[in-house]
Protein: Synaptotagmin-7
Organism: Taeniopygia guttata
Amino acid sequence: MYLHPEAASAGTPSRDVLLVSAIITVSLSVTIVLCGICQWCQRKMGKRYKTSLETVGTPDSSRGRSEKKTIKLPAGGKAGNAAPAPGQPPLDESDRKTEPHSSVSDLVNSLTSEMLMLSPGSEDDEGHEGISRENLGRIQFSVGYNFQESTLTVKIMKAQELPAKDFSGTSDPFVKIYLLPDKKHKLETKVKRKNLNPHWNETFLFEGFPYEKVVQRVLYLQVLDYDRFSRNDPIGEVSIPLNKVDLTQMQTFWKDLKPCSDGSGSRGELLLSLCYNPSANSIVVNIIKARNLKAMDIGGTSDPYVKVWLMYKDKRVEKKKTVVMKRCLNPVFNESFAFDIPTERLRETTIVITVMDKDRLSRNDVIGKIYLSWKSGPGEVKHWKDMIARPRQAVAQWHQLKA
């Protein structure tokens, strides 16, 4: 059947049109498929990239998360891996990575420096959290009585957790043994150098004591820190009435040390100033005044004066003294004394100040002493360090007189 060309074009699409339509359809299909593939690839690649971020920095990606959650401090571990203290929130991992490690070490160094600046024997030590300020350590000893020989045996074994009394952060402990109320006769252990957990294992005998007198005594142990440049610093004491102990056999005890009681009473205070001149290699000691001095005379008063000794390596070098103030417990001296001290000798120098009571008919009595050096008691060390820190300035401070 023959059709007119116009009629044919109006009713049926031409070959070119069909070809173009087929090309467009194929192109759209290919585009859709490619887009799907790209999206799938992006999802897979994104997941893989995220996983790699989570596991970076760990030797085994399969245990990366568990390591983040289990941060512990083993014995001897570094501070950077320490677990948080009780009561504190756990350390966030992101904070650990962004905070420089040097800041931690700087903080530790700063705290260490502050602790070293504390005076010896000071209880204000914030670096030992959880330790009571009254913790003076404890001592182990044994006691028993030999009825055949009328002898009391006391064995000093050891001590633990003694406080540091020296500027170096340690102590040189020894023990005095008394049978109170007798304080004239005492026995002593050896000195254990630089040891806060000393072992003595020394045995002491009190011979010729009838049992009925022994049970009336009190065994008194006093632990002290030995110091050859100044007075020995008391660490703690223990007292145990012997009538409460089964002395028929050796009994061993662990006792906490208690603060030592001073039955001598107050000896008064002395106000003095120190002035250090490094260019002149000298220290000027100004004895200003005293207050509430202990009365040494029968009339309830004293005739005080002050001696000032310069000592180097435990040897007396030079002595100065003030005038005597008659019948006065609150004297005003205002006398200055200069001592030549080279800078290199400061660490081995001690200034000993003794307040005396003048007596014309007998020997002069000692009212009290003060030892000034870089390793004396807390108050004395503070004064000594203030003097060095403020050269050419007179630094004044009150000091409690000691026996």
Notes: Residues 1-10, 44-133 have pLDDT under 50 and may be disordered.
